[in-house]
Amino acid sequence: MIRHMFFLLLLIHSTLAQKSTGKPSKTWLTLNGAEPAVIARGGYSGLFPDSSQFAFQFAVSTSLSNVIVFCDLQLTKDGQGICQTGLALENSTTIALAFPKGQKTYNVNGKDVRGWFALDYTSKQMFDNVFLSQNIFSRPSLFDGTLPISAVEDAASLKSAPKFWLNVQYDTFYTQHKLNAALYVERALKSIGINYISSPEIGFLKTLSGKVNKIRTKLIFRILEEDAIEPTSNQTYGSIIENLSTIKSFASGVLVPKEYIWPVNKDLYLEAATSLVADAHKQGLEVYASGFANDFPASYNYSYDPTTEYLQFIDNSQFSVDGVLTDFPSTASESIACLAQNKNVTKPIKGKALVISHNGASGVYSGCTDLAYQQAIDDGADIIDCSVQMSKDGVAFCMDSADLTGDTTAITTFMPRSTKIPEIQKESGIFSFDLTWSEIQTLKPQLSSPFPDGGMPRNPANKNKGSFMTLSAFLELAKTKAATGILINIENAAYLASKKGLGITDTVATALSNATFDKQSTQKVLIQSDDTSVLSKFKNVTTYQRVLSIKEIISDAPTQSVEEIKKYADAITVPRASIITTSGSFTTAFTSVVNKTHNANISVYVSVLRNEFIALAFDFFADPMVELATYVAQVGVDGVVTDYPATASAYIRSPCSNLNANLPYTILPVEPGSLLSLGLRDVQPPAAAPAPALNVADVVDPPLPAVISNVSTSTPAAAPAGKPRSNSPKNVANMALSLVAIMLISLLSM
Question: What is the structure's pLDDT at 2?
């Protein structure tokens, strides 16, 4: 049953992904001017167990039509070839369970390696008893122990697979144990088509040099780490690569770790490119780069967008590698077919979703700073956003939250001002309305990770760069830079009016009027709030689009609730999980929220999209482009709110954002639940409880209170007015914040 469902999934992907073969219209700086090759390491090993039939078939169905299937050769005791990366098999198979006493230690190229090895078992033992598992633990384990090992012949004979690459990593090791890899390859060449044979051993390649048809089969020298020793010459690979003319005498190309081409320093930033590709091309050598994986962050320069990394290697003005070896071949394919040589496209396809920044380009610079907004504009954001906060002395400025502890260095300076305000948030905080604007200006912005425990840190070089912006300065920037539009987000209006004497809605309205946004229709103006009474304050300016922010995850939008929204708003912003449900990092279903609100002529914006792979369900292949394709091309949202406008803009401006275009390749949306359904039922994650439907009571808010007067502006309040608190709870809250402060201060001082 699982196999039938898998091949149905393949049929859908292959039908949509490769609509036509079409002649490539792009020119490339590869050796022969051909399109760079996509080489699928172990098939689609970023999702399925390495070298499984699922991995091989999925790679072929989701990639460019000329994808190359890559198999790492291992030899069994009886000399049969199987595909599997790495000599020791215990992490990538169930061999330790099948043969619990089979662990051994072998010397491999001068190093002792302990584990379970294919050469200790016959092919029958391997095929009958050993099953594959995912050896990278951040990837799906759903298919562990269910898929058999693949013979080389199985991988080479895939239907629709145009080319096959066999890598022979350990010829010397097998020779020491009376197994002949060269002889195996010679025999295999008579029965299967092998287009590429690679090895890190010069002696092996020279042995094959006179025995292969070099028109049909290319010999590729695989370069390992610079200080590793090549067993034939006893030289380091770093020294061998310096003599490309010698390599040309026994190989037609090199397969090198990508760092040989674009080095990355210890701080994970790119250094200048080496001359390796240009020098190799001068010698007539092809250059293939290895080490690509969407879930292995390579450099902060790429902003966690894997397509940006591919483009660095194939779409720069100096050179293009001849191919990339990757665990995620669909992402490499879309980089080549959809995104390369597309930088001059400045306008999105008509009718496509808006790209709305989230605190500017807050994945690159600290949110809501001048640099974040400028970056968002440069990156192609249609709408730049300002979440308006108020200082104690009534200055409106942009900041994601009224609590300054997350996005500024307030915790190092204003700890005595911390307080707990249940109306705003559960945790204690240092709030903007308890500090004057001059005090806030003494702080520095702070670029932080939105993920637990600070995982996936963002661009440390920009951590404290940029300046905070007042609302008026933000509006001036939008007009000066001719942004397509702005989004003004207003929260906590009732609290500010009734407890702090600050009229945030009037302040925003006045600022917009002073900047003449209420007297023009050239630039879009979106007024967003989670409070319908706030939106009502702006109903008289008909050019403003009013957006209701629904922060809670909902599973449905009943007609009565949608009709109530219609009275106050033209659009809604909802979390991703209100559109696509998930369970155990797998998508499960589409909700009806978008369809029902669209039926009422209400636009839908989805928030917040992030590039980091840990923010993506497994179905999206650790690729933010696939998530974008699903929300934009499949669901049909009207806008995406994102920390990384460059990624969203690149997708929406690419030809592949149009699923109806007759293209050789396109970026496919996912079908929720299809991947999860392939796993055995007893290993699937438990179904999550459904989120509640949106009720009318969740939509309508009471009228805003009047703005109180006579609020002191000279001394900060330790607790909100009218809410007296005992010392004990306040001290407990502040102690909790103090512990956090100690840790943060220690980090900031490092």
Answer: 46
What residues contact 320, with CB distance under 8 A and at least 6 apart? 28, 29, 30, 36, 277, 313, 314
Give CA angle at 15 (10, 20), nearest 5°. Answer: 135
Among 58, 115, 60, residue whose Cα is nearest residue 86: 115
Question: Rounded to whole angstroms, how far apart are CA atoms 185 and 166?
Answer: 9
How far is residue 335 from each of residues 63, 289, 525, measured CA to CA in Å? Answer: 11, 15, 33
Amino acid at 460: P
730 and 737 in contact (C-beta within 8 Å)?
A: no
CB half-sphere exposure, 335, CA atoms < 13 A: 28
pLDDT (0 to 100) of residue 46: 97
> Does residue 384 share a domain with residue 324?
no
Burial class (CB in 10 A: 0-12, 13-18, 19+), 227: exposed
Q: Is 31 helix (H, G, I), strand (E, B) or coil?
A: coil
Q: What angle do CA 270, 273, 278 make, to 5 degrees?
A: 160
Residues 6 or more apart in contact with residue 584 via CB below 8 angstroms: 684, 685, 686
The token pair at 611 is 């590039």
Distance CA 226, CA 750 (A): 32
3-state secondary structure of 132: strand
In a domain, 209, yes or no: yes
What per-residue confidence (pLDDT) applies to 734? 37
| Average pLDDT taken over every residue of the chain | 91
Q: At 570, which CATH number?
A: 3.20.20.190
Write out the two tokens for 428: 């204690």
Domain count, the chain: 2
Alpha-carbon distance of 720 to 420, in angstroms, equals 8
Beta strands in 592-702 (DSSP E): 603-609, 639-642
Residue 441 burial by Cβ neighbours in a 10 Å radius (0-12, 13-18, 19+): middle
Counting as low any pLDDT under 70, the low residues of the chain are: 1-25, 161, 344-350, 710-750
Q: Which residues pair with 388 in a beta bridge?
A: 398, 490
Structure confidence at residue 572 (pLDDT): 98
Helix (H) or strand (E) holding 646: helix 645-652
How would you class 499 by CB atoms within 10 Å of its CB: exposed for 0-12, middle for 13-18, buried for 19 or more? buried
Are 324 and 366 in a shared domain? no
Catalogue the long-range contacts made by 315-320 (C-beta closer than 8 Å, 24 or more residues apart): 315/339, 315/340, 315/341, 316/273, 318/29, 318/273, 318/277, 318/278, 319/29, 319/273, 319/277, 319/278, 319/281, 320/28, 320/29, 320/30, 320/36, 320/277
User: Which is it for the CA torsion 678, 683, 689, 691, positive or negative?
Assistant: negative
Q: Which residue has the tokens 């103090």?
A: 738
Q: Does residue 147 form part of some domain?
A: yes
332, 292, 297: which is closest to 311 by C-alpha?
332
Enter the DSSP assignment of 337: I
Residue at token pair 């000279």: 714
Cα–Cα distance for residue pair 655/657, rounded to 1 Å: 5
**Residues 324 and 396 both lie in one domain:** no
pLDDT given at position 13: 53
**Predicted pLDDT at 348:** 58
Domain that includes residue 163, residue range: 37-257+285-290+320-328
Tokens of 16: 């949509």
**pTM of the complete model:** 0.91
- pLDDT for 712 equals 55
The pLDDT score that the predictor gives to residue 530 is 97
